[in-house]
Amino acid sequence: MGRNSSISWTDVTWNIAVGCSKVDKDCLYCYMYRDGKRYGYDPREIRRTKTVFNLPLKIKEPSRIFTSSLTDVFHPAIDSFRDEMWEIIRQCPHHTFQVLTKRPERIVECLPDDWGDGWNNVWMGTSIGHQEAIGRIHQLLEVPASKRFVSFEPLWSKVDMNLDLSDLCSIDWAIIGGESGNETGMYRYRPCSIEWIESLISDLTPTTSIFVKQLGTHLAKEMGLKDRHGGDIDEWPEHLRIREFPK
Question: Does a structural domain hold residue 159?
C-alpha cells in the first residue's frame, strides 16, 4: 500500500486506513475484502494505519497519489482523523492526490475550512459500475473541486450518462475498467462488454480525458488474451488504447 503502485493510473497508493463497509452491488466482489481474507485482516474493521500514514511527506518526487485504495476516506469511521489527512495533503503541494469515494454525498461536510473552490493538488472522484449508481455522479458535480473524475470500474452493466453538456464538461477524467476476479469461490467477476466501454467513450469524448485501465477477466477470457485480467494495452483493439490524464 505504498510506493510504485501497480495501478496503472497512479504512481503511489496511500492508505490512511484499512477496512470499509459495502455501499451497493458495485462492491460485491471488492478486492479489499478478498485481500483481507488472504492477508489475515478483517476487511469490515476500519483501522487507522501506522507506518504509512505519513507516506506523502516522505516522497520528494512529485507524484500522483491514490487516496485511498483499501478504505473510503469519507466513511464515517474516519471522521475522527480525516483532518490529519487534509493537513498532510496541505503540506504536499508538489503531489497530486486522487481521492476516490463511493460516498460523494459526504464530501462537502468533510472538507477543510479553507477548501474554497478546491485545492489545486486534489482531484475528487467517485466510482460507479452500473446504471443505478449514476446518482453518485450528480452528487460529485455538487462538490467544488479543481478536477473531478469518475471511475467506471468494475463496469458490469451499460451506463448511459444522460447528462447535459455543462455537466459532462465538469467531469475532467474518466477511468474505465472491467471487473477482475476468480473463476470460483467468493470473489469472482461479472461480464463486461466492449460495447459498454465504447458507449462511455462516445458519451464522454471530447469533454473528458479517458483512461481505459483494463478490459476485465470476462473479456480477457472471451478474447483469448494472455493477461488474464485484460490489463495489457497492447492486446486490445486499437480504438480502445486510450490512456489520457486530465489536461
Answer: yes
